[in-house]
Design brief:
Blueprint lengths: L1 H13 L6 H26 L5 H18 L2 E5 L9 E5 L5 H9 L3 E5 L8 H7 L3 E3 L4 H16 L3 E4 L20 H6 L3 E10 L16 H10 L3 E7 L9 H16 L6 H9 L1 H9 L10
Parallel strand pairs: 1-7, 2-5, 2-6, 3-4, 3-5
Antiparallel strand pairs: 6-7
Length: about 300
Amino acid sequence: MPAASSFESYNARVSPARLPPLLRRPIRIGLLGLHLVWGVTLAGLVFPLLGPAQRDRRIMAWSRRLLRVLGVQARTTAAPGLPGGALLVCNHVSWLDIYLIYAAQRVHFVSKAEVRSWPVAGWLAHKTGTLFIERGRRADTARINSEMRALMEGGAWVAVFPEGTTSDGRGLRRFMPSLLQPAVELNCPIVPAALRYRTLDNDYSAAPAYIDDISMWQSLKRIVGEPGLIAELCFGEPIPPNGHRRELAAQAEAATARLLGTAPASAAAADTQLTDGRGAAAADTAPQTPGGPPA
């Protein structure tokens, strides 16, 4: 991959981390543009000639390079080795989450339908096997569950962000159980994971947080303006799919909280939603609404 190699060698020579933000941003954004062109070329011209395993390797490699182009150092633990399909559940902070997970484990994400219409990012998400769900349509959950079942039956991993939205990364929202049903029906393990972002000095970083109605462009400028970021991804032990999906969602939430070293979402809030008929229905069928584009 000569184009990818040129990105890395140029990035190493220029060392954007040492430059002031006014120079750092345009250099990284320029490299990102080139990397996106390389991704479109791969997805449009090369992918049709490759088998599934070869495509998967290229998706993972492209994601690792994307993180490096943006100045993000990925630190990940090994994903558990499983003989078949699995459902990955993780907290959600940024659109960077998608590429951090891709860099460590090939998965198929579930994303909001609006992402499909985004220029470039939506097309790339489609080409990398993302499943799109329409928010506000409870019936669409059944369709997504069917597609998830087909993938996991074939041995693939499917990834969801069960908080349903992004956070600033310092806490955890309650996990919604609706998209855990395929794992229950197929007896596929649920793999909890936790991610966080730090500065190069190992302090908490708010730069990647895709919250408060900021635009994609604003989020990108914040990220590339940093000297660098450390992205940590930790996989937990698989959870057997025994029990009701609400119980499994609570177990997965607790496991993710332990990996983060934080407390699970308020038990009182969960009890209120589970015991109130209307709240339970809304929580149990709420569609996935990740904040960033899973390209």
